[in-house]
Amino acid sequence: MNDNPTPPVRHTLPAAEEQVRAIVTQSPNGAAWYTVDSTHLALKFREDTPFEVWQAETRTLLEVARGIQWLVGDALAFGEDHWGEDAAQVFNLEEYTFDAVEKMIRTSKAIPPHRRRPAVGYSVHQEVVGLPVAQQEEILAHAAVSQSTKDEVRSLVRTTRRRLIRESAARQPVPDLALPACTLQVADARNLPLESNTVDLIITSPPYGLDVAYTHGDITAIDWVLFMLAWLPEALRVTKPHGRLALNTPLDTTKGGLRPTYADAVYAATEAGWTYQSTIVWHDNSTTKGNRALGSVDSASRPFHVSQVEMIALFSKGEWGPSSSNPDDISPADWQLAGRGPWTLPGETHAWEGFPAAFPVEIPRRLLHYLSRVGDHVLDPFSGSGTTAVAALKTGRRFTGFDLDPEAINSTQRRLATVSILKVP
Ligand SMILES: C[S@@+](CC[C@H](N)C(=O)[O-])C[C@H]1O[C@@H](n2cnc3c(N)ncnc32)[C@H](O)[C@@H]1O
Questions:
Q1: Is the CB of 355 under 6 A from ligand 1?
Q2: Domains in the chain, ordered, with CATH?
Q3: In angstroms, what is the span from residue 140 Cα to ligand 1's centroid?
């Protein structure tokens, strides 16, 4: 170290400075090379600082910066127990929002030092806080090995949380529902236990080949079109002449390669004999493909476009006309709302019993009033958590739902026990 330091000169350290200035008063190794100017809140390196020293010190300081949230959280969570009431006064936390401080305390309490992974960022630790310890450990270990990003961990946490909710729900009793207007049954959409020409309207969202954590697994991307070609003719068979199909799919997907899912679905439906009518664009403000159109930031080299829409393609069996003479029940407001696109409403964020890939009840509710009549027979061959069932029974339609997963059927029965159902006239 130099015994005769030249006067310090301010060096701007663009990324590091903001973080460093908040935490460094003096570093034992770097003290001879830099000082902190508390008037200007700047870190000052001496002009003759060799690059290697600057680099090493900067890296150390960035490491310190990474740990600062643990430090603050630990001090606030445990400081008073150790040093008494004055401990909390040590920190001037004006730079943090109340929420951020709360989160730091919660994170420190939830993940004690011996479970913290040095190779995993603080924000990743924060993501797992709400989970039970066993699942926290599982995800942190995975993140350490795979160098997962915060977004990847967030999605893993969401899936894990849903799985836990579903596992706990599956232990609940299944109510014995005696609803004359409703049939729920385990069945394969490719082979429906239903008479031909009996359904007025199908509202459904099939598995998309997106690797969703369904109990029976998802369809693989490569088999998807074949799968669509297998169930759509069966859906046509059970539908009455002039009956309708509202088919919800994403516009496109990236899992299993880039796929124009909606275009494939329209192709499969028309191949199966359905007559195309039109498409409702549902702007759901979320996607299955990540939430930012990144790829090559601020460059045309490899932009990755994200469309925040799903599609609801409308078809009929033969001519587009009513399949029943039951009374209409659409309000003028709903008529206006339904008839103009796009439909802007958020995707389901709190699905019943943590079911993956559910649509919100508002989607089938609007479709039911728009495309069917009171007392009509509605089918969802991929019934899932029973969202179409809820909307159909609340609006006085008869409903039949099938799903390959017996737990989805049980779950729907628990769900229907909680909703008020309109009697079919
Ligand atoms: C996208 S989810 C339906 C979600 C539903 N719209 C809701 O809001 O809950 C697709 C469902 O199809 C079911 N499924 C997958 N393959 C099937 C098949 N061959 N026949 C019937 N159901 C199937 C899955 O178990 C899953 O519940």
A1: yes
A2: 1-110 (no CATH), 182-416 (3.40.50.150)
A3: 31
Residue type, 336: Q
* Token duo for residue 398: 């008869």
Per the CB < 8 A criterion, the answer to whether 106 and 129 are in contact is yes
Among 106, 152, 151, which Cα is nearest to 129's? 106
| Residue 58 near ligand 1, beta carbon < 6 Å | no
CA 190 / ligand 1 centre spacing (Å): 12
Q: Measured between alpha carbons, how far is 45 from 10 in angstroms, rounded to an integer?
A: 6
Q: Please identify every stretch of the chain with a pLDDT value under 70, giving residue numbers as ranges.
A: 1-32, 34-42, 88, 210-218, 286-296, 425
Predicted structure pTM score: 0.77
Six-digit token string for 138: 């599982």
- Are 383 and 184 in contact by the 8 Å Cβ rule? The answer is yes
Q: What is the pLDDT of residues 65-80, one digit of tens each?
A: 777 888 888 888 888 7
Residue 402 CA, closest ligand 1 atom number: 21
DSSP state of 342: P
